[in-house]
Amino acid sequence: MESLTPDALENKRGVFFRDTLLQPEILSMYQVGMIFREPTFCDATYKFGGFAAPHRYLIISENAKCLDSYSEHPEWGLCIWQRDSIFKVIAIQSTDFHSQITLLEIPKSNIIDYQTKTLSDGELNLAEQSVISFERAEQTPPRLEHITDDWLDRLTCPIGIKSPGQFFELWQPTITMETISGSPIQVVDWSVFNQQELLTNYALLLEELRSRGIVHSSNNPIGDYAETLVSRSLDLELVGGSTAGYDAIDKKSKIRYQIKGRRVTVQNSSTQLSAIRNIDDDPFDILAAVLFNADFSIRYAALIPIEVVKELARFSTHTNSSIFMFKPSVLMDDRVQNISSRLKY
Q: How many domains does the chain contain in total?
């Protein structure tokens, strides 16, 4: 990981250096694997040299813009990044005298691919190369042009950190407090996001829900969320997708539950649940159905014995399955148990 000429920076992943002095509490905030946003035009140099200050950001990027042609100090090798660039920490090295934080710039459209608990093979390879660069920098004198006050004064702010010691979010959304279903909720103004940012945030949201165990996959979350609510509230054991016909079982009574959820919106108020297959074979004992409002609050939920499901469902030759409408009238049947109040978020 050495210097590149300005011409070599075009359309090529380069290595850049930003030497500064970080307070111990700031330095300790950086951890391998974290991802954050830098809202400013971040400065660095493409010219390798020894440490000009105790701490170094080694930045690996394809998108730095070299300003040699415009700068009053072309000897600096000044490069900048666009505002709101996204970086991932892939390595940290320290000795008694110096520390180096290696940052990999990542594309906004691909953030979800970089949010992994362990580094990828490519990231590990770059991290290993950063160790070599760190060791060389320890044995190399600093460039004279990089130990001037004019240069070092440009590099005083820590990358990605705002006062009082917090990282900048990946995006800076507008958040308001609104009352939804009787509760105050923080709501993001999504209208300020472009199409790619919306899709990326949707993927990040699903991944966060999955990591918390609220959903089980990165698919449509309604079914998974219904399974989580019902199983946790009724102390059922989820059996996984490989078990045909039912989704959870009561470990004591051995009663089998098929769990289905439906979200109604202004655009689609249908209460039709997803297809129920092979109902004549009694694949489950009880249908646990949850109807969600548009904001995912619970409109109503019920435990419906399979004999009631058979009576009320209609068979569809088109889908070769039974169709069940979870209307409010279903709760009027004495055999149906209303569990709306029992489901806990």
A: 3
